[in-house]
Amino acid sequence: MIATSRNSALEPVAAKVEAGKRLSQDDGVALYQSRDIHELGRLANLVRERLHGDAAYYNVNRHINYSNVCVLRCKFCSFYRPYPTGDRRPTEGQGVNGGLSLPLAGEAPTVDSPTVDSPTVDSYELSVETIAERAKQAYDGGATEVHIVGGLHPKLPFSYYTDMCRAIRELCPRMHIKAFTAIEIIHFTRITRPRLPIREVLVQLRDAGLGSLPGGGAEIFDDRVHDEAYQNKVGEQGWFDVHRTAHELGIFTNATMLYGHVERPEERIGHMIKLREHQDESLRARAAAFNCFIPLSFVPDGSALADRPGPTGLDDLKTLAISRLMLDNVPHIKAFWIMQSAKLAQVSLNWGVDDVDGTVVYYDITKREGGSGNTHQELSVDMIRRLIVEAGRRPIERDTLYRRVERQGASWRVEGRCDPENPENPASPRDS
Ligand code: SF4
Predict the structure, then answer these.
(1) Are 27 and 16 in contact (CB under 8 A)?
(2) Measuring from atom 4 of ligand 1, which residue has the nearest CA?
(3) Rounded distance from Cα 260 to ligand 1 centre (Å)
(4) Cβ–ligand 1 contact at 296 (below 6 Å)
């Protein structure tokens, strides 16, 4: 029996959610304005359990950031470094992680894991060999996915990216390569000679081994926010062009929203509605669609917006829950524990979230502790499962495309087809 809404402002929204109706811009803003976090959680949970029952998904993955050199200077970003001047070059084969031997995916972090924690991180670029070696190390440890993104490097040729995919594919034949945000894809169209269109760039990457695209670079789809926080970056049209083309080609993608910097709640809701409209079109007429939506909590440390406070825990929780309610056609809502913290990601499993991402191991893009934080950011599989079970959910390992993974140690296989009637097999975008 569903309890009656206690907050009169939310009653019309609650009635829509309970009836399975789509929420409007005004409904989304009303959810943000409400102080009734419990009612918001109840509604988000209702939708989450309709889609996934008590299942909560995670994966065994490894993030690799190939270079922090970037031609842009987005105000919210603490990751980028300019290309060195004079005769200097970015450090090759190093990176924030120091290019040292790394723990295998899924292994518990150790206190003496080798990392370089420098508040004055220099520019770096990893060689294709180093990237493939790191992917292989994770693959041998049982990782099913490698997640690769980096800055918009002014000197690396397009062949660097296709070679990277080929080298990983050769060493790790079954590993899913999820790589390159829409912004990087647009960058590739600009560095090819003659310039290649988005479609051709995606086709060449897919032929080299690319499996899917992550959702980064979306930020907030709003001209005011764009002009204030990342003026020189490709805007929403470019981002949607890449994801539309990927979906037409049958390449699944994710979607994100970077929140908690200069945007307002109504602009966050507008962002979600634009994604929802795109997803409607992809589900109706394209061969692929968004797998999941990942709200990314802004980390001010080390960025040009460091004077901003960034989102609070309550804002994080509300945004995750509201995402579940607004994006009724996106099957999965992920709390990327790196951004919201493992503790809040755990709580959010009862506030609309059904996925907490994976083991990660290293993540250079955001570093806590004043921008100098340790980039070794890893959860063991045991810890992820413990967080999920303690939240009253049932942990299910998935692959990148949300198919169930059966595992014995480092060996694994993907189980069966997606079955919306059986939450043990995660719903695919086409099932929602
Ligand atoms: S957010 Fe991406 S595009 Fe913007 S400065 Fe950082 S690395 Fe470059």
Answers:
(1) yes
(2) 74
(3) 17
(4) no
